[in-house]
Amino acid sequence: MTGMPSAQRPPRPPRADARRNAARVLAAARQAVAAHGFDVSYHEIARLAGVGVGTVYRRFPERAQLLEAVLLDVLGELADSAEQALGEDESWPAFTRFFTALALRTGENAGLSDSLDDRGGPQVAAARRTLLDRVRRLTERAQRDGVLRADLSWRDIPFLARAAAAGACVLDLPADRLQAERCVTVVLDGMRAPASTPLPGRV
């Protein structure tokens, strides 16, 4: 019996080592972009991934593909964090955990402050919209429950997260993760509604 013609054969799944290399390249690209911005060299990504630069070029032949993959990875992670928070019962702890994740990722990824629609294609634009919709829902739920200041707009949340994110260095003072977390805590304290604030519709 003859085999199936090659044109009709389903594509073979990537080999395990190829999948591992792809994951390492993406993780290294994300780390490199966070540290050096979108103009980071492929050689730096290859060095961080521990692979040859040819492997990086095979995975991302065009720089636009690299940037899109990095942005989708970061935005997807944040969107998943927001979705998890929406599934929790207590709105303030859920909001706090998501805001902390958003602030820390914003501090680690300067690219999130750029124009994502310009940097990525339709998939990045859709991922950004998904994340912002979940930010809106988390904000509105926390306000309905009377735990988040009512004078905040959901659009304020990404800006407050960016303000809370400690930079790598300020006035020659290097930042560490604990310092970043303290800054986030202080900002969250200012965002929380006073304990005496009644829930909407209650007296």
TrEMBL record:
Keywords linked to the UniProt accession: DNA-binding, Transcription, Transcription regulation
Top-level taxon of origin: Bacteria
Keyword Transcription regulation listed: yes
DNA-binding region of this protein: 41-60
Record flagged with keyword Transcription: yes
Family annotation (InterPro entries): Homeodomain-like_sf, HTH-type_TetR-like_transc_reg, HTH_TetR, Tet_transcr_reg_TetR-rel_C_sf, TetR_SbtR-like_C
Domain HTH tetR-type stretches: 19-78
Stored Pfam families: TetR_C_43, TetR_N
Transmembrane feature ranges: none
PANTHER family tied to this protein: HTH-TYPE TRANSCRIPTIONAL REGULATOR BETI, HTH-TYPE TRANSCRIPTIONAL REGULATOR RUTR
Full protein name: HTH tetR-type domain-containing protein
Organism in which the protein naturally occurs: Streptomyces yatensis
